[in-house]
Amino acid sequence: MIYTVTFNPAVDYALRVGEVKRGQVNRTVSDEVSFGGKGINVSTVLKTLGVESTALGFAAGFTGEALEKGLKKNGINAEFIHLDEGMTRICIKLYEEADGAETEINPAGPVIPKEKINELTSRLKALREGDTLVLAGSVPGSVSGDIYKQICKDLAGSGVRIAADASGDLLTGILPYRPFIVKPNHAEAGEICGIEATTPDHARECAAALREMGAQNAIVSMAEKGAALAAADGNVYFIAAPKGVAVNSVGAGDSMLAGFLAGFIATGDYRQSLLRGIAAGSATAFSKGLASREDYDRILKEISQ
Ligand code: TA6
């Protein structure tokens, strides 16, 4: 079974405007609400690709209730721990049509009491060989920055596959525990590797460096440019993303991770899994919401030729 953990789920509010006029009332061209947070997006796209998972994490307040109801309505098995205080955050994704700029405003999220963290970590200790655990996204300020490291330490030697999409210390802290796959974006990877990763060669270099630091497999995603994979087979792959009109990039990186995991479960082949990750990420970026199966299949066929 695949379990995704989202410490900081989000109700995502994507707002499209012509151009932000600071200090003034700005009217939207369109707006879209979706239930997100990185781990949840991974579960949602896995479901689209026919792979079941259980979404774990924390929910709080009326937004947390709406999130759980929305996920269950979408057929996602969500088993969140409920917090008595605070509210699940609303993340703003602002698109300016004038220049294509995308601005994210992500609140810190609710305070998670220690006993609630312990409830989750106890649940995770029950995972067994053959399970996959996806650790994705930020953690609220009240949670220790080495929580991912603690979880990986608890599971060391268990045979549970760790997949992680995180940044900074959250990511570097788990590398010594040989995670099966890590997937930072190029900015996050560049920050860890100490370079400004702007080209495919930079992405290859960062992916290889992340493997050197302990990851079994490392993807460095570069949005519309594609992604590099330094794989456990010793190869470093780079696949360019297909051409298309980016509509809403929310969840594209999460979709790529989901596509890679679904691909690896189906084929055990690294390059094929990267292709499927690119297809899922692009299908999300080219649509208002997360990837549809139809778009995924069409794009996979296009880039596999
Ligand atoms: O990748 C998109 C997304 O998962 C959105 O759901 C948005 O809420 C954001 O990322 C959250 O990222 P964070 O790193 O703050 O957990």
Walk me through the structure.
- With 305 residues, the chain is of the alpha/beta class.
- The protein has one domain: UDP-N-acetylmuramoyl-L-alanine:D-glutamate ligase (3-Layer(aba) Sandwich).
- The chain is built from ten helices and 13 strands.
- It has helices at 38-48, 61-73, 114-124, 147-154, 168-172, 186-193, 200-212, 252-267, 270-285, 293-304; strands at residues 2-6, 10-17, 30-36, 53-60, 77-83, 89-96, 101-105, 132-136, 161-165, 181-182, 217-221, 227-230, 236-239.
- The strands form two sheets. A nine-stranded mixed sheet has the order 5-4-1-8-9-10-11-12-13, with helices on both faces. Strands 3-2-6-7 form a four-stranded mixed sheet.
- The relative contact order is 0.13.
- The protein binds 6-O-phosphono-beta-D-tagatofuranose (TA6).
- 6-O-phosphono-beta-D-tagatofuranose binds next to strand 2, helix 1 and helix 8.
Primary descriptors:
single chain, 305 residues, alpha/beta, UDP-N-acetylmuramoyl-L-alanine:D-glutamate ligase, 9-stranded mixed sheet, 4-stranded mixed sheet, 10 helices, 13 strands, 24% strand, binds 6-O-phosphono-beta-D-tagatofuranose
